[in-house]
Amino acid sequence: MTTLPAAQAQSAVSSRTEYEAALQLLRDASRSYYGDGDSILDDAAYDQLRHSVRVWEEENPAEVSPDSPTGLVADGAAPVGDVAHTARLLSLDNVFDSVGLIAWGASVQRRLGREPQGRFTVEPKIDGAAVAARYRDGRLVQIITRGDGSHGEDISHVIGQIDGLPEQLAEPVTVEVRGEVAFTTAQFETANEVRLAHNAQVFANPRNGVAGTLRAKDRPYRLQMTFWAYGAVELDAVAFLPSGAAHAETLSAVAAVGIQTTADSAAGLHVVADLAAAQERVDAIAAMRAELPVGIDGVVIKMNDAAEQAAAGVGSRFPHWAIAVKLPAVERQTVLEQVVWEVGRTGVLAPTAVLAPVEIDGSTVTRATLHNPADIRRRDLHIGDTVTVYKAGDIIPRVQGAVVQLRPEGAQPVALPEACPNCGGAINKAQERWRCAQGTACALPALIEYAAGREMLDIDGLGKTYVAALVASGDVTDVADLFTLTAEQLTAASGSARRATKLAEQIEAAKVLPLSRVFCALGILGTGRSMSRRIARHFGTMDAIRQAGAAAMQDVEGIGPEKAPVIVEQVAALAPVIDKLIAAGVNMAEPQDASAAGGAGPLTGKVVVVTGKMTGPLAAYGRAEMTALIEKAGGRAGSSVNAKTSILVAAPSSGGKPSTKAAKAAELGVEVRTPEAFAELVADYLA
Ligand SMILES: NC(=O)c1ccc[n+]([C@@H]2O[C@H](COP(=O)([O-])OP(=O)(O)OC[C@H]3O[C@@H](n4cnc5c(N)ncnc54)[C@H](O)[C@@H]3O)[C@@H](O)[C@H]2O)c1
Ligand SMILES: [Zn+2]
């Protein structure tokens, strides 16, 4: 397996040799980033390495390499063409948070010598490649890359391949628009399909695909991209733009003749009064990021007023009147270690990528969805590939694609199953999502056995053979069917009327169990017993659970951003089963417990430690049941006796020495109660 280049990039630069190696890596990375290939570093790794280089250069000014990329537009790595730009096409300065934005505001004020009077605009920073497009008399005549900012390459061959940049405008105007070209998510999927059909390498991610696609001249296929204008300049003496136009007006003028602008993007363009309002808009755009149809890597704030822009001026790499608030990297590179196939409750074969752990936006990602076999094929994934993984907001992480350049020698394509991984039977491949030919019946017996388990519905008599018979007869197609079985059906499956009666009783008893048990019985991935208890206790009713989105789900202790959407999705998919359970009269509420009722329980604020075997009314209580009981009564279960312990529940030692815990309790003066005395204290909470 290859060493991750990202790992290489982690280290700080501390010597001349390391400095030179870092420069080389940066150069290689940005050459492919701006050139034709997929980047060998993800942006976070690149930025970190670049930062280390900068720090070293500041400390060792005499040793700065004359061709260091750190002071140049596009790090001096973008292919420079021979078309002179009408006006320089610059990069953007950036900040990472509201503090940085305020600092930018202060710098603007210094440059103006007063507070800005005009307003600010807020628009998405689309993660693509910058181009300038020239229209003469309403016709699109030339497209140019950013290059080094003063000269770019002529890429007019892509005219007609870019949505939002029509070949013919509504009016015969002459103007140059500047903006970003990117693949939308949908265009990216299509692009990879087309590439595969032509035996070309798939793209690692939408951003990586664009630079190469724009520059490619001789491809036997065309890939559709999309353009959003974020600025315009006059090309001619005959002015098209309103004189002294503010930024928002410029974009409106451009939009009026049929060119798409950032104002038309899902994130829109807002004009706001001040930077506090701008920050609010930044937050709003950040929140919608995962749902946007195109990747963004930040939000751009600009001074709207043309005269104030001119007064603020431009630097060598970026204008002083605009700032990008960078959003956290949502895409990282890591290694695809294997692909596992699980058979869902409906018989769908779901492939999941197992990844070398990677930190994305504050959480560690180890698994990502691959959707279906077509998805794997479209991305041409091999085991051992360095892949780009995308994870934003509440969504389930997904694999974007492989960095084919980094593929280890001998790597094998991800194998697709030939038989159902669960039952070994045939697979139905009629649709993009493969299914076990048995459908629901495939995963069903295991699910039902699980649901009948002691800590779930506790239907003791429902063993393996019994379940198999009920599933085979078609009487049980999901957990809910258990509750509507007739005496005849039960008898037929068990072969004995007596056993059927006993089973019917147990099933009846299961109807009044707390919600946590029923929820657990649904077999939702990632929700075992204690998690089900926490979810049930947190929401109180099944209704509330069903209404919870991923954000609300994360309020439950132990559910992070990776798990929440998975649970929400499964609950939604189980709607028909849950509806049947409700119709069958199964309890859908968690008994009000003290902790939820605002701390009115007898154990509120108390830490209870339990030791030894329980007796009396608690004789049937195991460790798990005792913990549940304590929590229901408002307390917390502890595992060892210490100064924070409030009560020790222990059966009196029969003649011999007191247990270690009892001895410790005596030493600390902790109250000791027998199981009987404790049961009295929590009598209201006993099942
Ligand atoms: N992964 C790699 O190997 C690699 C290599 C080189 C550079 N990079 C990445 O490239 C970035 C630096 O590139 P850069 O100098 O082009 O800066 P940048 O891409 O961070 O920002 C400037 C660009 O943003 C674009 N933009 C998008 N929406 C805009 C809007 N609404 N208004 C104005 N501009 C808008 C413009 O094209 C502009 O040129 C770094 O963050 C780095 O992570 C990555
Ligand atoms: Zn199967």
Automatic annotation (TrEMBL):
Keywords for the protein's UniProt record, in alphabetical order: DNA damage, DNA repair, DNA replication, Ligase, Magnesium, Manganese, Metal-binding, NAD, Zinc
SUPFAM superfamilies listed in its UniProt record: BRCT domain (SSF52113), DNA ligase/mRNA capping enzyme, catalytic domain (SSF56091), Nucleic acid-binding proteins (SSF50249), RuvA domain 2-like (SSF47781)
Entry's Gene Ontology molecular function annotations: DNA ligase (NAD+) activity; metal ion binding
Entry-linked Pfam families: BRCT (PF00533), DNA_ligase_aden (PF01653), HHH_2 (PF12826), HHH_5 (PF14520), OB_DNA_ligase (PF03120)
Enzyme class: ligase
The EC number(s) this enzyme carries: 6.5.1.2
Positions annotated as active site in the UniProt record: 125
UniProt-recorded name of the protein: DNA ligase
Species whose genome carries this gene: Streptomyces nanshensis
